[in-house]
Write a structure and sequence with these properties.
Nucleotidyltransferase, domain 5, 2 domains, acetate kinase activity, ATPase_NBD, Ac/propionate_kinase, transferase, Aliphatic_acid_kin_short-chain
């Protein structure tokens, strides 16, 4: 009998949940039944989007939904009360809950979440305080509300477990680095894994023979050099802050900049708590930088279409930083590249950006398909 799976993606200001049922006999792919998201947790009122077949709810304002756990509980009640979703009539119908967890440390693959796994992810929260905490909030809620469901963590960092030591190692004191787990991890791995399999199917070429330069371009953006289907290098590092700029992230900058920007760089930010240790520098570079700082908006579509000087500057900066990864990755793959792939919301919708990037590396033989 088919069982219900929840796919849960808890962000810093949103919770997205997709409902699947396990494959029927003879199939290997779960069937999606519904999709719900609560957005705007940091800028209330939060809003609900819901889709099940022809049933659609858009931008429904929600009162008293302020945290990821609030959002999860609300969506769960909404799903079980949806008469058109007969497969999920009660909470006990849910057999598996699959969580996207940004930072998995050294875990090379997905893990069933038990006490040991939970505490390992919790320990990594100091490395990714703005990213792992929301996922752990939902994990705790699931354990409370759905005690019979199996919790499984899927890590954005796992795809990059194949990074060679000369790429993952930072040139700092090795004893300190080992003790504090300071190395390049890389993120957006779930996306890059999907890209690899999708390109393999599209080109009808085995994944373990594919060489790809992949660009995941959204509010958070990164690049990945994929050789023989495995991650060889990626732009993000110890945390998702490194590499490309994003909607509110600075991307890579001179590390000493923050000490000139503010004398309080190392002090706790207002977002810190007993469980989370977030410095003012982390807060500024993760939440108050990027396109928002340059243009006043996080909407890259508006930036791309604008003639304002500051918008054009932000657009040019983004293109330049992307090119700073595409060209070196081309050489790391010895010029044997099967595809330059654009993914993520901006990568998929940003026609002008795709054209600008391809124009910038046309000398390497790239052209738009």
């Amino acid at each position: 009998m088919p069982e219900i799976i929840l796919s849960i993606n808890a962000g810093s200001s949103s919770v997205k949940i997709s409902v699947y049922k396990t494959p029927e006999t003879g199939s290997s792919t779960p069937t999606q039944l519904a999709e719900a998201s609560v957005e705007g947790l940091t800028s209330p009122p939060a809003t609900l989007k819901y889709e099940r077949g022809d049933e659609k709810v858009k931008d429904k304002e929600l009162e008293n939904i302020k945290t990821q756990e609030d959002a999860f509980r609300y969506v769960l009640d909404y799903l079980t009360n949806d008469k058109g979703l007969s497969e999920l009539s009660k909470k006990e119908d849910i057999r598996f809950t699959c969580h996207r967890v940004v930072h998995g440390g050294d875990y090379p693959r997905s893990q069933v979440i038990d006490k040991e796994t939970y505490h390992h992810i919790e320990e990594l929260s100091d490395l990714a305080p703005l990213h792992n905490a929301p996922a752990l909030d939902i994990v705790r809620a699931v354990a409370d509300i759905l005690p019979t469901a199996k919790n499984i963590a899927y890590f954005d960092s796992a795809f990059h477990s194949t990074l060679p030591p000369y790429i993952s190692t930072y040139p700092i004191d090795s004893a300190v680095a080992k003790k504090n787990k300071l190395r390049k991890y890389g993120f957006h791995g779930i996306s890059y894994s999907f890209i690899t399999h999708a390109v393999s199917t599209f080109l009808d070429k085995p994944a373990d023979q594919l060489n790809i330069i992949a660009l995941h371009l959204g509010s958070g953006a990164s690049a990945c050099c994929i050789k023989n289907g495995k991650s060889l290098d990626t732009s993000m590092g110890l945390t998702p802050l490194a590499g490309l700029p994003g909607a509110t992230r600075s991307g890579s900058i001179d590390p000493s900049l923050m000490f000139h920007f503010t004398h309080s760089a190392g002090k706790p930010s207002r977002s810190s708590s007993g469980q989370l240790h977030i410095t003012q520098a982390e807060e500024i570079l993760n939440k108050s930088s990027g396109w928002k700082a340059l243009t006043g908006t996080t909407d890259f579509g508006k930036i791309s279409a604008s003639d304002r000087e500051q918008d054009q500057l932000a657009f040019a900066i983004f293109v330049d930083r992307i090119l700073n990864y595409v060209a070196p990755y081309f050489t790391k793959l010895d010029g044997e590249v099967d595809a330059l792939v654009f993914a993520g919301g901006i990568g998929e919708k940003g026609e002008r950006l795709r054209q600008a990037v391809v124009d910038g590396v046309r000398c390497l033989g790239f052209e738009l398909d």
